[in-house]
């Protein structure tokens, strides 16, 4: 059986003394300010992705648009859930979620897209999902054991972003694309 590194009385005394820190204790091993910055970048990413998917949902047209638009709407709802989850974690860590629309696209990892062509919409959404997958993988590795709760948040988001990328790849494979040249 493993022993605690800190005796119970010391843990209790610290918990009382630093009660205003909420869940952030001396055991927290990450750079809190940097974690909050990364979380706010992820928040911006998720909001921009929500907006991109919503735009694509409303503007999708053509022979194959109905099932594709339905997928866009489902992804938009899931990206909004991601944004909510990230914002909640920021608050838990004592930070302030940054919803400033003036800086969203600058802070987001993935870009916004205003494509009019259905295939281009799918491709741009797939690119954005791949960017999120790459950045969330790096973030989860960077967090390591320093903040296991935030790492798990990113791992959960990562799993769903991989699902989105797979969905979009499947749509591209099912929809006939024009031959160029």
Q: How would you summarize the topology of this molecule?
A:
Layout: H1 8-17, H2 32-59, H3 65-92, H4 104-107, H5 118-143, H6 148-174
Helix pairs in contact: 2-3, 2-5, 3-6, 5-6
Describe the structure.
There is one protein chain. With 181 residues, the protein is an all-alpha fold. It has one domain (32-174): Ferritin (Up-down Bundle). The chain is built from six helices and no strands. This is Bacterioferritin. InterPro entries: Dps-like, Ferritin-like, Ferritin-like_diiron, Ferritin-like_SF, Ferritin_DPS_dom. Keywords: Iron, Iron storage, Metal-binding. One of its GO terms (cellular component) is cytosol.
Radius of gyration: 20 Å
CA-CA gap between termini? 69 Å
Order of H and E elements: HHHHHH
What fraction of residues sit in β-strands? under 5%
Q: How many structural units, i.e. domains?
A: 1
What characterizes the major β-sheet? none
Q: What's the count of strands?
A: 0
The helix tally amounts to: 6
Q: Which whole number gives the mean pLDDT? A: 91
Coarse shape: elongated
| Percent helix | 55-70%
Pfam family, one: Ferritin
Domain Ferritin-like diiron: 29-179
Keywords: Iron, Iron storage, Metal-binding
GO molecular function: ferric iron binding; ferroxidase activity; heme binding
